Amino acid sequence: MKARDPIADLRRIAFMLERANEATYRVRAFRSAAKALAGLPTAELTARAAAGTLTDLAGVGDVTARCVAESLAGEEPVYLRRLLATEGSDLDAEATALRTALRGDCHTHSDWSDGGSPIEEMALAAVELGHEYVVLTDHSPRLTVARGLTAARLRRQLDHVEQVNAALPEGFRILTGIEVDILADGSLDQDEELLARLDVVVGSVHSGLSDERSKMTRRMLAAIANPHLDILGHCTGRMVSSRPAGVTGPGDRGHRARTRKESDFDADAVFAACAEHDVAVEINSRPERQDPPKRLIRRALEAGCRFAISTDAHAPGQLDWQRFGCERAALCGVTADQVVNTWSAAELLDWAGKRS
Ligand SMILES: [Zn+2]
Ligand SMILES: [Zn+2]
User: Fold this and answer.
1) Which residues contact residue 172 at a Cβ distance below 8 angstroms, ignoring those fewer than 6 apart?
2) Which of 30, 124, 199, 273 has the greatest number of CB atoms lying within 10 Å of its CB?
3) DSSP 3-state assignment of 187?
4) Distance 131 CA to ligand 2 centre (A)
5) Through-space distance between the first and last CA atoms of the chain, rounded to whole angstroms
C-alpha cells in the first residue's frame, strides 16, 4: 500500500481532538510529534518505524509512534479512524444552513497573545475548514495576562501577516484586526492610527465586569460610538463553565472550574446603539462563554442589529466551534443576511471601512 503522510495524519488528529475539546496534553502530544518529525527525511522515518526507534526522538511517544508506523504502512491510523467514526454533526437544518453560509471568522487568537499556535497554523486550519478569511484579533496592551500586543508589536505583526498572506493559497487571506479592550471610560486600548489601519476591530470588556449597571452601560455606549469599533465582542462577559483545556489566558491558571455572572447593562440601550452605529453584535461560539445568552440575541435581533458568529479560537481545532454559535443563533431566528461573516472578505472590508 502507498504510504500516507504521517505528519498530516498527526496534525489531523490534533485538530480533531482540539475540536472535540479534549485535554491539552493529548492535543500537544500529537502536535509535538508532528513538529519533531516534520524535519526528518522520509527514509529515516521509515527506517526508524521499522526498527521501532521513533520513540527515541524527543516529543514522540508510543501512541504517536504507532500512528506514524500505520501511516507509513499506508493504513489510516487506528486512532484517527476512531475519531472520524465518532465525529458527526448534531445540527438541525437552520443551524447547518447558517454554518454553510459563513465564509470566515472575525475573532481568532494566535501565540502572539494568549493563543497556542502560530498565525500560519491557524490560517492553514481555516483554509482546511473552507474559510475564505480569518480576522486575526490578538489582545491589546492592557490585557497583560494575555500578553496583549503593544503598538510596536502590533506593527510587527502587521508586517508578519503580510508575509504569511503572500505564502497562503490563492483565495484565502488573513485580515488584520484586534480584540481591543474597552477601557473603564469606554475608550479603546490601542493607538488611534493603528485602529484606523486594521481591517476589523472587535472590542470587548475584560475588566470591571461586575461594575454597576449605569457605569457599564456608559462604558459600552462610548465604545460603540467610537467609529473604529466594528464588532462588540462577548458582550456580557459571562462564563457558563470552566474554560476548556488548551486555553491559556486570563483566569486560566490551573484550569479551575469557574463560572461568571453576566455583566449588568441596559441591553436595550446598548443594542439600539449598535444598530444606530452599525456595530455588529458578536455571537461568541466558545462553549464556556455562549455569549450573549439567547434572550439577549433575541433582543439584539429585535433592535435590528447585525451579528458576527465568531469562534474566539485560541487553537486551530477551535476554529470549528462556529457550529455552536450557529446553533444558538438559529434558535433565536438569526438569518444569514444578518451575519457579517457570511459576506466575502471584500464586502466585510467595505463595511468595516465605512465605519471608520
Ligand atoms: Zn475576549
Ligand atoms: Zn478573544
Assistant:
1) 123, 126, 127, 131, 132, 133
2) 30
3) coil
4) 19
5) 57
Between the CA of 138 and the centroid of ligand 1 the distance, in Å, is: 9
Distance 131 CA to ligand 1 centre (A): 22
Distance 35 CA to ligand 1 centre (A): 29
Q: How far is the CA of 237 from the centre of ligand 1 (A)?
A: 8
- Ligand number nearest CA of 178 is 2
At residue 329, the 3 state secondary structure works out as helix
Asked if residues 219 and 205 have their Cβ atoms less than 8 Å apart, the reply is yes
Q: What sections of 202-321 are H helices per DSSP?
A: 213-225, 267-277, 294-303
Please give the distance, rounded to the nearest whole angstrom, from the Cα atom of residue 92 to the centre of ligand 2: 27
If residue 104 lies in a helix (H) or strand (E), which one and from where to where? Answer: strand 104-108
DSSP character for 262?
P
Q: Are 182 and 204 in contact (CB under 8 A)?
A: yes
Quick check: pTM over 0.85? no
